[in-house]
Specification:
Helices cover about 35% and strands about 20% of the residues. It contains ten helices and 14 strands.
């Protein structure tokens, strides 16, 4: 019997992408089968639209929640955006620069670094298979920025949290955090999209693995944390899949009667 869900949201890194940053063939086949079975497919990622363009093309998906809920598109139409206000962002960037800690700004088209030659920045972006960005230290002042990355280690995080209580610092790498509005999350972006579609959170299934997936996994009707996922993500999910490198996505989609 088919699952009554209507739409499936997939995180990218560690969920669709395996440890080699490619999509296993079993996952591609599973998504194609789910679509054939009538489910809407969507991406829910911390990455920006330009960072997932090849993936969207490969999977023929045009609905996505990007920047952890800050930039949401349904079938090519922008339905919701959110961002940290410029004065707060300016405070964070100025404070970081005074400490030798730097940032990357992202909009829907590109990423821009605040400084040249920052090793932590280079190493963190390399895990996403991205080269060192263009540099413009005041890019955020003159452009809409939907996500900012600050390159700090865990030890510095509490300092930033205490000084900037109106934003969230969500860690995605030992050297880097996403900066989100206090009310920002993948769950919020998903909710805005579902309202547009006339669906409820109960109609959604979400698949994820990271700390930035916790709200999403907590909010939807059915949620899956990958076997390779963070313990805190697993703790809130309704189901645990095998490891992404072991075909875990396809396996759990079968178990949930999506395919």
């Amino acid at each position: 019997m088919m699952n009554p869900a209507k739409i499936l949201f997939f995180d990218v890194d560690g969920t669709l992408f395996d440890s080699t940053k490619t999509i296993p063939q079993s996952a591609k086949d599973a998504l194609a089968q789910a679509r054939a079975n009538g489910y809407e497919l969507a991406i829910a990622t911390g990455r920006g639209p330009f960072m997932i363009a090849p993936l969207l093309e490969e999977l023929a998906i045009d609905t996505y929640v990007t920047f952890n809920g800050q930039y949401v598109v349904y079938k090519g139409e922008v339905v919701y955006t959110n961002q940290v206000d410029k004065s707060t962002l300016d405070g964070i960037v100025t404070f970081g620069a005074s400490r030798g800690e730097h940032a990357v700004f992202l909009d829907e088209n590109q990423m821009v670094a605040s400084v040249v030659g920052e090793p932590k920045l280079e190493e963190a972006l390399a895990t996403l298979k991205f080269p060192y960005p263009l540099v413009d230290p005041v890019y955020y002042k003159n452009n809409d920025v939907y996500q900012t990355l600050v390159f700090i280690e865990q030890a510095q995080e509490t300092l930033y949290e205490a000084k900037f209580p109106t934003v969230q610092f969500v860690r995605w790498h030992p050297y880097s955090c996403d900066i989100l509005p206090a009310n920002g999350s993948k769950a919020v972006g998903i909710e805005k999209l579902l309202v547009r579609l006339g669906f409820t959170m109960e109609d959604a299934v979400a698949f994820g693995d990271g700390l930035n997936d916790i709200e999403m996994l907590s909010a939807v009707g059915t949620s899956v944390a990958m076997g390779n996922g963070h313990a805190e993500a697993k703790a809130v999910a309704t189901h645990i899949a095998p490891h992404v490198d072991e075909g875990g996505l396809a396996t759990i989609m079968k178990e949930l009667h999506l395919i």
